[in-house]
Amino acid sequence: MIVLSGTIGAGKTSLTTMLAEHLGSEALYESVDDNPILPLFYEDPKRYGFLLQNYFLNKRLDNIKDAQGSQLNVIDRSIFEDLLLFKLNADLDRATQTEVQIYGDLLNNIMEQVDFSDDAIVKTPDLLIYIHVSFETMLERIKKRGRDFEQIANDPSLYNYYKSLNERYVAWFDSYDRSPKLSIDGDQYDFVADESAAKEVLALIDHKITELGLKGN
Ligand SMILES: Nc1ncnc2c1ncn2[C@@H]1O[C@H](COP(=O)(O)OP(=O)(O)OP(=O)(O)O)[C@@H](O)[C@H]1O
């Protein structure tokens, strides 16, 4: 199982689709449009942050279970990033430290059940791919995509939220050590708009997959 990671608008969903097609494997998504809590959260983060985390936790576990069939199945976001987002929300006073603590303990308990055997229910990824984008690129992509609730024009406080998030991601990826990992420069390779950049990115990932000996079924 390959998992994508990266900030809001980094291109995780697009790369998930491209990669799964390229590898002939399955893509697993957490649909943003069908998420009933997300618009509520952006409206009132203090009230809905904890509920949102629990919603995501459940969804990520479903995706992990559904991805078990092959080392090459691709999930559009890792379970490991949610705590980073939730901690940031708490630091910005949009959640309480107690909520973070309870969520963190629950996550730890679940992750302790992780086993490397093939039939484990919660499995460690075979590879984590991180798409790094600069803050400027992140803002451009969020604007271009145009999801109402993500727009800084509608809520100026999102500027600082996005800025801190982008900074924290770099440290998060540096310290991530649960599986092999690969970083893709999303500024250098605009794999959505530029076909040759897409080919280069897929070649980088192919190389890593070969190095790790990952196999489909
Ligand atoms: N743990 C979380 N806590 C708060 N918000 C979250 C969390 N996970 C995702 N989100 C929000 O859900 C939305 C979708 O996020 P996500 O990064 O998964 O997809 P995306 O923005 O479509 O990314 P990409 O463009 O890379 O596919 C964003 O508005 C993001 O802020």
Describe the structure.
The protein is an alpha/beta fold and 217 residues long. The chain has one domain: P-loop containing nucleotide triphosphate hydrolases (Rossmann fold, 3-Layer(aba) Sandwich). Helices cover 52% and strands 9% of the residues. It contains eight helices and five strands; from the N terminus they run E-H-E-H-H-E-H-H-E-H-H-E-H. It has helices at 12-23, 38-43, 45-66, 82-91, 97-111, 135-145, 158-175, 195-212, and strands at 2-5, 27-28, 74-75, 127-132, 181-185. Helix 3 (45-66) runs parallel beside helix 5 and helix 4 crosses helix 7. The longest helix has 22 residues, at 45-66. The radius of gyration is 17 Å and the shape is globular. Adenosine-5'-triphosphate binds at residues 6, 8-13, 32, 38, 52-53, 56, 77, 82, 85-86, 150.
Keywords:
single chain; alpha/beta; Rossmann fold; 8 helices; globular; binds adenosine-5'-triphosphate
Q: List ligands, each type once.
A: adenosine-5'-triphosphate
Using the coordinates above, name the CATH class.
Answer: Alpha Beta
Question: Any guess at the CATH architecture?
Answer: 3-Layer(aba) Sandwich
What's the helix count?
8
CATH superfamily: P-loop containing nucleotide triphosphate hydrolases
Q: What is the tally of beta strands?
A: 5
Could you say how many structural domains there are in total? 1
Helix/strand/pairing category: alpha/beta
In percent terms, what proportion of residues is strand? Answer: 5-15%
Low-confidence stretches: none
Q: Report the mean per-residue pLDDT as an integer.
A: 92
Strand arrangement in the largest pleated sheet: 2-3-1-4-5
**What's the SSE pattern?**
EHEHHEHHEHHEH
Q: Kindly, what is the distance between the CA atoms of the first and last residues, rounded to a whole number of angstroms?
A: 12 Å
Approximate helicity band = 40-55%
Quick one: biggest sheet?
5 strands, parallel
Rounded to an integer, what's the Rg over CA atoms? 17 Å
CATH fold label: Rossmann fold
Shape: globular
